Amino acid sequence: MAKPRIATKPNDLRDQLMQAASGIGGEASWPLTAPTQAEVGALTGSLFSGITQVNDLKSQLSQARADLHTKTDDGREIMKRIDEVTDGLYGSDSAKKNDYGLPPKKSTHGAQVPLEQVVITKVADGTSPASIFIDFDSDAGASAYKVEWFSDSAMTAQVGSAAVSSSEYEIAGLTIGQQYWIRVRSIRGQEFGTWSDPATRVANL
Hints:
CATH topology of the largest domain: Immunoglobulin-like
Low-confidence stretches: none
Structural class: alpha+beta
Shape: elongated
CATH architecture of the largest domain: Sandwich
């Protein structure tokens, strides 16, 4: 009696595994002959055909994703252009923008720019004796600036103060050899900005 052979056809292998798992059907019926070359060729052809179809689907999916990104970018550009055109036609806060799927922008008419913290950019000897010159960044929202100077680093012993309209100021009438600490802030009506970080210098001749 010839020895049984391991199944080579998928269906035969499946049946034998099912028989072994269930414990019925007696001894597995192993095929006595190998599949023919024609059968192997047909199975191989089916396998390669399936692989080709999967690769084609992957390529189509990749192209679809690229098309989606392109269309999304194009759509954003179109909506941006519609936003600009409707701003010009109706105003940025007009309810007509809703007709084009765009929300009106909040009106900023009359809104004031917040006051910024001033930065002192230069501290030098003034043009007159016993004076200190300071220069600082201007604040677009300010109508004036408050300058204060002190004789101690804790800035509790105030020596003087001044309201100025430009972003530079010369503090005069100081004591020669005395060190001073200076700070500046923006003013707009009754509104005040944050004090600058203090700058310091000794008043010289």
